[in-house]
Every structure is written in C-alpha cells, then in structure tokens.
Hints:
Elements: H1 2-28, E1 34-38, H2 44-61, E2 65-69, H3 76-83, E3 91-96, H4 97-106, E4 118-133, H5 142-151, E5 156-160, H6 166-178, E6 182-186, H7 190-198, E7 204-208, H8 209-217, E8 222-226, E9 252-260, H9 265-279, H10 282-290, E10 294-298, H11 300-321
Parallel strand pairs: 1-2, 1-3, 5-6
Antiparallel strand pairs: 3-9, 4-7, 4-8, 4-9, 4-10
Keywords: Signal
Protein name: Tripartite tricarboxylate transporter substrate binding protein
Pfam families: TctC (PF03401)
Amino acid sequence: MQRRALLQLLAAAPLGLGLGTGPVLADGYPDKALKIVVPFGPGGATDLVARVLAERLHAQLGQSVVVDNRPGASTMIGANAVARAPADGYTLLVSGSSTYTVVPALRNDVPYDPLKDFDLLAVVADAPMVLVVRPDSPYATLQDLLTAAAADKAGLQYATFGPGSAPHLLGEMFALTANIKLSAVPYRGSAQAVMGVMGGEIGMAFDTLSSSLPHIQAGKLRALAVFSAERVPQLPDVPTVAESGLADATFSGWYAVALPAGTPAPVRARLSDALRTALASEKVRSTLDQGALLPVFLDEAAFRQRTEAEITRFRDVAQRAQIEVE
Length: 326
C-alpha cells in the first residue's frame, strides 16, 4: 500500500511541478530591464504613448523600461521583431491600430499574423480622426464638401500617408458611405500631408487629431468633422460624421500594447495590471490629453474582439473600393 502511494506521488510530481511554473514566473517577474518596440521614429503620437507608459511601468515594476524605435515598411519591421522575440514578457510592442488591423487587412505581404503571433494585451488610447481643409476653403461645412463632391465626377482629391494607410482607408470608407467619388493622393507622412493642405497643394486631408490639432488651434486648418462615435473634448464644436447621417463612416484609430504569442499568463496579468494602474494616473491621462488622445483601457478579450472586427470590416472596404497595396 505504501509502495502504491509512493508511485502515485511520483506520477503526480511532474504535473504538480508544471502547475507551479506560472506562479514562480509571476513572483520573479520582472528581474531585468524591459524593452518597448515602437515601429515609428522618435516623436509623434506612438512614441509619446510608449514613453509615458515606459515611465509609469518603470515605477510599477521596479525595472528600467527602454523604448526602441524601429520604423519602416508600414510598421512591419518593428512589429515583426516583437512577434519573433522570446515570449518572456521582456519585449513589448506599442503601436497604433494600423499595425494590428489596417495593414493586415490591406496588404498580402505582412510577415506576422496579429491574431496568432501576438498576445494582444491592452488598448490604451483612442486616436480620433478628423477631416481638415484650409481656413479659406470654399467648404465651410461637411455638407458643403459633400455637395461639391457629388458634382465632381473626377473625384475630389485628398491627402493620405500613402497607399493602404489609415487615412487612405478612411477616405474610401467615407466615399462609399456618402456615395461620392474621392481620389487619394499619397504623401510621405502626416506632417507632409497636412503641409500639403495648408500650402494649397491639395484641398483636404483625413488626419489624426493629434497631428492636426495644433494647426486647427492656430487657425491654419479648419476641421469639418470628426470620425469618432462622439464629439471629442478638444473640438467640442466640430460635429461627428454620424451627425450628418454617415454613421457607417465612423472610424477611430487607437494605440495598444502587445507581446509575443505564448507569453505566460501570470506575466501577462502582471503587465495588464501595471498598464491599468498607469492609465489611471493623472500624469498619463494629462500627457495623452495634451497629445489629443483619449485614455482608455480595453483588456485582452476586448482588444482581440476589436481587432477581429476591424480586420473583417477593413477587408470588406478594401474589396469594395478596390484598394490594392503591393
């Protein structure tokens, strides 16, 4: 009987040890510096989000948190580096929704699968989009623009960050919803697109609020509409597209944190708790507000649900608008 009991104990030992792995990892994590990969160059909204989170994560976790900027290839270089990194919780990705939904929905050459190669940890900020024109534009309201677009069979031109970018997708989504024709003109980035509008090279742009807001406040751009579900606090007098009957064109960018797939659950939980605490801090909230971003916290399940829904939606828009990106 004693021998049988001993054999049963030995047989159960590996299982017990395996079950104990998670708590050990959680108790010892982190024991070295963390790295946040940003698939953009320094400066800009993504870098802002990463650096304010790095500061608060350092305070929460007691370890240094380094920001590593790896721009290029429509964010695919940096994102893929994180997807292939060890799944130990020491390499994080902070990027915008284009990395997780727009690029995978529109391109066939993406080296990672956002739903398989990442543990989608948390959405931490919403990034409203806005339609802007010059202050002396003949379009004083969104309805003025819609009327002009309906009469222009060639299609009014609008600036984008390049083929397959979020503004390109938003412009086509807006055109399909409003039953008008628009023509996308690619620029190298947000700053160049906005300068094109302000300089009179092009009539309008779909841009992030964080990029356009300083120019709007300075009177160098006029905002016709925002694409968020509700009006944004930074521009309370600017209507949403839904208020003009174009609810299907509602679109908001966002910023989120992801990890390599397979990161242990206790480590993910530790990081999730740290992020939740960071998002509740006045320092983070005020920094995001200054960057025209809206602090939020969506957990892993909500993050995955949003990603799946947007990929499906954006692929449908790309097919209907015949967007093809090499």
